[in-house]
């Protein structure tokens, strides 16, 4: 167990280590067993973050031709679906003087362009590959071995567990990805989630998608499936990281984005808030109230809006006062302004926003046309309202 901690969101949380660290440690231990002829009980690994790991070696097997062992994944206090899995490495001697790295059972294969590894390769990312290679090379140097070694990484149970990850959406089939840039898992890492969003957008772009559909979460997906059957499969869920999603879409050459989401999330964009998590910024009622006030809402209405807990409650008040349509129109205009500002004018933006109770509240002028473009790019049968 790694006894390192971070303080985040008023909590003390324990760090863990990545699948990449597990794979590198298992490969290093297996190489040492093969070249020394002796079993290993523990292995030391220095991570790119500069934190040294001392890990227990599990299920060690040694024969004259190969060595195999595993390292159990410890995600610390991060809610990682791979926590507790054992990542194995099987090392064999080969004639060609190289360290040949591949994935076996439970390690996914890349099936679509745009990911870090080429199509057909095992989904073992660049930094874990480097960690594996460097660890094995150190063992070869220690024992004076100048031949080649093959390293096969495999994760029993990985194929089933991969269905709970983003891998199927990214075009990684048959198992998990071996990931990690620092070797260390930091609980609730925003950087890891943002990189997943960027990767999905990169895959869309590499697949020739010029117009991208962005949704903040499951409400947006449900809405799309209700109104436009099948279209949610073409979307990218950006969680709270609207700004980073817009940045990535522009970086990867998109021509346009369509934003479809619940007003409770999207209303924040009308004030230029690009990270919509409540701990970073809320302001929902302040934004709604300000626009209602500009449109002539009475003092009693303004006060009632400010006292609302949810946007659904506030929308009901706006509807009763005959202000809902006008407020929504102003909000859409400001949302579009700030998103265009974020992208530097590099892509067009259209928006659809809705309420769980009231349905579609409004959409920008070009939203329907952009939906048609997205559907055409996906090769979907045009069906449903507006398509």
Q: What fraction of residues sit in β-strands? A: 15-25%
* Number of alpha- plus pi-helical segments: 13
Cα-based radius of gyration, to the nearest Å: 25 Å
Low-confidence stretches: 381-387
Mean pLDDT across every amino acid position? 92
The class by helix and strand makeup works out as alpha/beta
Number of separate strands: 18
Describe the structure.
- The chain has 13 helices and 18 strands.
- The chain is of the alpha/beta class.
- Strand 6 (58-62) and strand 7 (66-72) form a beta hairpin.
- Helix 5 packs parallel to helix 7, helix 9 runs antiparallel to helix 10 (299-306) and helix 10 (299-306) runs antiparallel to helix 11.
- The chain is elongated and about 85 Å long.
- The relative contact order is 0.11.
Secondary structure layout plus pairing:
Layout: E1 5-8, E2 11-14, E3 16-17, H1 19-36, E4 42-46, E5 52-56, E6 58-62, E7 66-72, E8 86-94, E9 99-103, E10 109-110, H2 126-142, E11 148-154, H3 158-162, H4 167-170, E12 172-173, E13 184-185, H5 190-206, E14 211-215, H6 218-227, E15 235-237, H7 242-251, E16 256-262, H8 263-266, H9 284-294, H10 299-306, H11 311-320, H12 324-343, E17 348-355, E18 359-363, H13 367-378
Helix pairs in contact: 1-2, 5-7, 9-10, 10-11
């Amino acid at each position: 167990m790694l006894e390192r901690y971070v303080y985040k969101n008023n909590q003390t949380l324990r760090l863990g280590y990545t699948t990449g660290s597990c794979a590198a440690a298992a490969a290093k231990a297996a190489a040492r067993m093969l070249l020394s002829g002796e079993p290993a009980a523990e292995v030391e690994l220095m991570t790119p973050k500069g934190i040294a790991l001392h890990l227990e070696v599990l299920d060690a097997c040694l024969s004259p031709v190969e060595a195999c062992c595993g390292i159990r994944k410890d995600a610390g206090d991060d809610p990682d679906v791979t926590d507790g899995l054992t990542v194995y490495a099987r090392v064999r001697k080969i004639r060609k003087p190289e360290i040949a790295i591949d994935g076996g059972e439970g390690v996914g294969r890349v099936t679509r362009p745009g990911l870090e590894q080429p199509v057909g390769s095992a989904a073992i990312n660049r930094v874990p590959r480097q960690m594996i290679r460097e660890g094995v090379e150190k063992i070869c140097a220690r024992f004076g071995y100048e031949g080649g070694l093959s390293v096969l990484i495999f994760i029993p149970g990985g194929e089933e567990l991969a269905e709970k990850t983003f891998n199927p959406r990214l075009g990684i089939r048959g198992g998990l990805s071996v990931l990690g840039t620092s070797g260390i898992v930091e609980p609730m890492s925003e950087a890891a989630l943002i990189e997943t969003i960027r990767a999905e957008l990169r895959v869309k772009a590499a697949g020739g998608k010029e117009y991208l559909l962005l949704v903040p979460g499951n409400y947006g997906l449900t809405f799309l499936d209700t109104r436009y059957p099948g279209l949610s499969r073409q979307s990218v869920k950006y969680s709270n990281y609207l700004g980073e999603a817009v940045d990535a879409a522009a970086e990867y050459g998109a021509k346009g984005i369509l934003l479809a989401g619940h007003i409770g999330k999207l209303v924040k964009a009308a004030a230029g808030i690009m990270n919509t998590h409540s701990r970073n910024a809320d302001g929902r009622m302040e934004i709604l109230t300000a626009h209602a006030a500009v449109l002539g809402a009475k003092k009693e209405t303004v006060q009632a809006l400010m006292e609302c807990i949810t946007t659904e409650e506030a929308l009901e008040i706006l509807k009763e006062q005959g202000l809902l349509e006008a407020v929504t129109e102003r909000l859409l205009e400001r949302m579009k302004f700030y998103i265009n500002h974020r992208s530097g004018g590099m892509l067009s933006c259209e928006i659809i926003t809705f309420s769980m109770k009231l349905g579609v509240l409004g959409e920008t002028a070009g939203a329907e046309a952009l939906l048609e473009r997205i559907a055409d790019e996906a090769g979907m049968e045009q069906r449903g309202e507006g398509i």
